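The data are passed on as follows:
___
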Amino acid sequence: MPTAPAFTEVELSYGCHRRRFALDSGDGPLVIAGANGSGKTTLLEALLRTVFGFRRRRPRERSAAELRRPWSETAYEAAVGFCTADGVDLVVRRDFSTDEVVVRSGSDGTVLFQGEANPESGSSSLETYRAHLKGWLDFDELNHYRKTAWVGQGELLETDLDQELMRAASGGHARVEAAAEGIRERYDQLTVEPIQDGGAKRKRTARSLEKARAGLTDAAARLEAAKRAEEKRQPLQQERRKLTDRIRELDDDLERLEAALAPLSERRAVEAEAKAAETKLRRLEGAQGELTRSLAAFDAASSAWRPFSREHTYPEDFEARVAALELLWRQRDEQQAELAEAERGSRDSGGGDVGAEVPSRALLALAGLFASAGLILLASGSLLGWGALTLALVLGWGSRELRRLAAGAADQASLLEQLRAACATTESQILEKAGPIPDAVTLTPETLPDRRLHFRQQESARHNLDESREALRHTLRRTRAVTDTERSEAGGEADGGRPMDGPGFGSAGTDDGRWEGARADLRTIAEAAARARGELAELAVRSRQRDVAVKRLPDGVESVFNSVDAARRERRAERQRAAADLRNIELRLAEAERDREELLPLEEECASLRQQVQSVEADARVHRLAFALLRDGYREFRDRDQERLLQAISARMATLSGGALGPVVAGESLANVRVGMGGRELSLASPPLSFGERHLALFAIRLGAADFMAEESVRHPLLVDEPFSHLDERHARELWDLLCSISGERQVIVTTQDRLVLDYLGIEPDIDLGAGADPPAGRPATTPTEQSPRVL
């Protein structure tokens, strides 16, 4: 017995993965964990897709290949390392874009195969590659793996035992089956009888033998009728009397049914009118309720707005004006403080106005000038030139001092004027900004919070009024068709052209609260609803009156139009058939008087048909005998291989269910597999099997089929995607123990997203595809940066 092959590592640029994974789990199953969308199924699928590829001519396979194309602009390829049953290390690399496959030896890198391996190409390169796969894995088709050792996510319910599995195991019986099927098809064209005892039921449509027998019977009957024409006249006459009586009864029934149709038709018309009136009433009541609610909401909003509309309302830009006023108030305070400071400085420097300081300094300057001139003259009176020079100097100094004093006084006065003008300007700006605000005189920083609260209350009331007005406007538009229709039916004119922006449709500031048009519509709808209720009551009375007019009907016919009409059509059809049968009886009675010369062709026809029947019967016997011989050959296969398959499945099922399920039995073929449970044999879809028990049974079928295939070849790695779904804790524990025992004889790779089951079973995942997950202690990491000793 060769050793079990195993996958050792994988390097992917496939789907959501662009990384390398080591597939060494130690002694037990290899567990791959991760949340939904983390790529567990993609990783599991990549192992086999790299080896076998995609059959892109099939739409489902082509779609799957496109879905696995890498998300980034990278190569679409993968490499898988595995050890064969003979202990040979191989690395298979596939470029999925071209289906180019390169197989290297894992020990020395020798190229063992290189070429195109598209599973649908039929090329010589593909045949060579398949021959290699048959030697390495004993499987050259992905579908054989799907039937046994690969349980994909959501594929467990698709588990079946078909002839393809048997063909993979034994091969030869398929030709026997094909030959037997050909014989069965030819036999089915000959007769409706089943080809074997206890087989399928008789067919309903006549075949060659039955048609020949029917023709023979008909011809014999016609011949016998001709021979005993007189003997047949009496039953034909009895049949004619029976048909005549039945036609008379049918005529009586038709007369009563047609008499009842008129009042029933009128009642149906009344019921149709009542249904239309009910529909109209529901529409009117709906419109009435909607318009009533909209008017009530508008009236409430109008009442809330009315106190604000009686006084001068705040402008809509109140907040902007207040923000500007706050700046102006601060500016005014600063300007007034600066003006007060300037006035205080002016008073301190001269005790009075600055203008009084200038003459004093001028007099002092002139006095100094004359005193200086006098001293110069006294000192050097004889020197007039020096005196004049001194006088000029003194006069110049005095003039300059006088100008300086005058300029300072002017600057001080100008500053005071500018400050006073700025204060006045700011005050005018304050009055301008506060002008539209009610009681602007009393608006100060201290009263501003109260004013803001009043403004917000006003805006809230305005907003509610606008919303209720808009809602009422939309309601009126929706109910306008109802009101216009009712006014038109009442003989008035439709008001569809009434504008929606007249009185009562203005803004909140101009709304006077009068919506006479809307209230008129409401009254119109209410009146129409009252009329509709009256019409319904009247129609109910008319319907009861029509019931009284219906006369007695034939037995089994209800007093409703559809039942009476259907009974009338049935009796008319039956009368037509009876009349046709009567005409046929009349013809047969006339044919009984034909001459005896017509007997000869009838006898010849009967002889020919008799020979035809004998020939078809002989042909049918030959086909039955050939089918029996082939059936015995097929039974040899079934007794040998099918029983071993069912025994392998039963053993796995007993282990998984703790003896509660099993054994698995089948009849002539694997099409009707049944499972033992509590002494009964149940189909897999039988209600006594719970959802979890059904999954256990289907999983046992997969494992047993894998065991059966392993007896014929090798024990392929068992790939199971989400095995714990739909299982309780006990069955999950039993399944895990079974997988652990299986891992001793073959590689087992399991994926799951159920962390609770892992925690309950005490399992640490070997590969964790969760974000930031670390590998368990003592097991290799699987991050993209890990470098395996052997480069794939």
Summary: The chain has 18 helices and 14 strands. The CA atoms of residues 27 and 744 lie 7 Å apart. The mean pLDDT is 76.
